Amino acid sequence: AAAMKSLRFISAEALVSDAQFARRSLGSLAHNLFPLLFKASYLLEQGEVIHDLVENWPLVDLNVGKLLGKSADCQEDLSHRTCSVCLQSCLTGLRDYVLHPPSPYVKRLKVVDLTGIKDVEVQVCACKKPLGRWARTQLLCKLCLELLLRPPRPGAAELSVDVLIDLFVTERNYELVVQALLTKRSCPLKIHCVAFRADSLALHKFFYAVRLADPALLRKLEVVHNVRLEMEHLEVLLASVRFPLLASLTLPARTFNVRRLTAADELVLAAIGEKMSEMPHLTELSMAFSILTGRLRKLLSPLKTPLKVLDVSNCSLNHADMAYLANSLHSSHLEVLDLSGHNIPDLYPSTFFKLLSHSSSVLRSLILEECNIQDSHVNMLMLALSPCRKLQEFKFLGNPLSSEALKHLFVFFCELPMLQNVEFPVPRDCYPLGTTYPIDDANLCSFDRQKYERVAEELKCILLQGNREGVKASTPLFGSYDAAVEETNNELGTYLMKSFKETLEKFTNSLKEMSL
């Protein structure tokens, strides 16, 4: 690790390791050393030093992601360390920067960017406690409201610092976020929402919060899980609020359900397509678990900017949808594609081939979970994937493939030069005979562990023999880690139970009415 650090960085570590001395010395340090000391303090988890560095920050901007990223002085990337000690110290330092009377020579901070922080599963910091996206939202809003309660010091009135953040709003922090956004004008810390995620939130509250968050600046909007946003609500939102910079849109399950489509709904669908076409930067769209059978063209053909990321997993797409996608302007730009939950080999093998051949020069990530890919389809799959030389990630959990078929695939994976991550299914022969696919959650874990471990070891040996030991191969049975879900799963569970109870009550009441 020492070889990855410059002498300058090692000296910075030595300085900040004595917190008291470092804090006393800040006034005599050259301004250009502050970024170096920030990263060194972060690495050593010196919260008090971080606080004082931010409180006395002498530069125009403080971009946390950049400061923690790889640099000539320290190769290690710390931007995925959402260390609670460090981030809390950073934010309270920011509050105190505003509170203490500014000297005209030193106080010139204009922008703080918190958007480059990446939430990951394993925290390697000593405190082992992350400050996730929801908690960062909560803390920043609290500090903004705190500042309003304190009388401004002389010279502090003209201070104004833009704070760029990815907000995460749920029922539990809604009031706080709304208060902070409503009082933004009078607060010296100006919240600028770059990405907005809503979960476990009543629809009217979501509409209100997203309007307050300044949609004109929003680049990413995620509406997930327990926000009951349906097609007609989405049309109202897009008709009443403009999102000129939006690049990424994620919609909750069943936003679209074309099985109950009326003539009026067809117009709504077309209107949504038109509104999305007015977003010139929109390149990422996720519509997992909506039912879109036969309507993909209507929704996507108005878009003038080609999509780079498309998630249409479990959308009940038919042959016409697949043919449209393969021939559309999007096909040659798709870098990330999720087609999980579709019976690809039986329903549209040739159009799937065509789609992959069109996107092969750019495709980085392909997800084909529960697509009924069997041993007899392995050669077809390898043929379809072979032109995809840029492929970095391939996930195909939940497909009924034998150990032998997986070995063939892994030999082929050695030939994909950019491949870094593979998520493969538990082999079919590790489950009891007669197991049907897709396997339900109750039977997902009832496989022969020892046999699986043996096969997984053999697959890793294949990668090793092909000089591809850098490829990560795993079987996350219950899907990949989602930091946002993990952070709010208690609230999510409560919300699900509440909506389940409401549904049961409605059902019971209608039964009572029928029996009267």
Automatic annotation (TrEMBL):
Key words, A-Z: Leucine-rich repeat, Repeat
Family note: Belongs to the PRAME family. LRRC14 subfamily.
Stored PANTHER family: LEUCINE-RICH REPEAT-CONTAINING PROTEIN 14B (PTHR14224:SF27), SIMILAR TO PREFERENTIALLY EXPRESSED ANTIGEN IN MELANOMA-LIKE 3 (PTHR14224)
SUPFAM superfamilies: RNI-like
GO cellular component: cytoplasm
This protein's encoding gene: Lrrc14b
Name the UniProt record assigns to this protein: Leucine-rich repeat-containing protein 14B
